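Posted in: Structural Biology > Protein-Ligand Complexes

Title: Requesting predicted complex, zinc ion in pocket

I'd be grateful if someone could produce the 3D structure tokens for the following input. Sequence and ligand are given below.
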Amino acid sequence: MRLILLGAPGAGKGTQANYIKEKFGIPQISTGDMLRAAVKAGSPLGVEAKRYMDAGELVPDALIINLVKERLLEADCKNGYLFDGFPRTLPQAEAMKEAGVAIDYVLEIDVPFDEIIVRMSGRRTHPQSGRTYHVKFNPPKVEGQDDVTGEPLIQREDDKEETVKKRLDVYVAQTKPLVDYYQQWAQRGVENGLSAPQYRRISGLGSVDEIRQRVFDALK
Ligand code: AP5
Ligand code: ZN
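-- Reply #1 --
Done. Output follows.
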């Protein structure tokens, strides 16, 4: 299984990615998690990426494309992969097509923006694993602690309301065009030796469990 999870910031990509990767036994490639790890480690990539992320802007394509290409060389990607938060610009999508990276499904999770603002303000994250919770809608078993490790949860720097609004604007301008890009490719068929991915859109409104069921149904 090789798939792309597409959706606005806060649509629930990371939440559902956790279930998908377990069910299909594939690695989750979240460029956001990888960048946050680089920021934490203080690597040159992290230093460069931090100012874009804190501003709610996208990190330059060349850096992201390199990061993903290197990640795909690792052995655990042999039997599939789940892209979470990537690609999110047309050049990133084109770069994957040119590199011959096959995709079976593009799964779009659709959530209205007013609901997204509510979700982001209550989000808590376990930075080491990328697991996310919501204080009200998806609380951890023990308040403030990760379910698996018991380590403390944090609030992401870019989840301030102003930054969330900026991220939603960036999504509309730069990532939303991928919806048409993949749907049009699906109509054209094979390109650069790659079959077009199947396009699926589901509503991301409802409980986490309801959406998980929708995700699994869409990938049958
Ligand atoms: P990234 O980490 O990818 O952030 P994002 O796309 O903005 O998405 P989020 O992680 O905010 O949301 P999500 O859809 O995963 O939602 P979640 O499951 O957590 O990117 C961060 C930054 O890195 C970017 O701004 C950019 O600077 C940079 N970057 C990353 N990739 C890049 C790329 N490819 N190119 C350039 N720059 C890049 O859920 C959200 C909340 O809702 C949680 O609290 C959750 O518990 C809750 N929730 C989930 N489902 C439900 C539900 N059904 N009901 C109620 N609450 C729910
Ligand atoms: Zn995420």
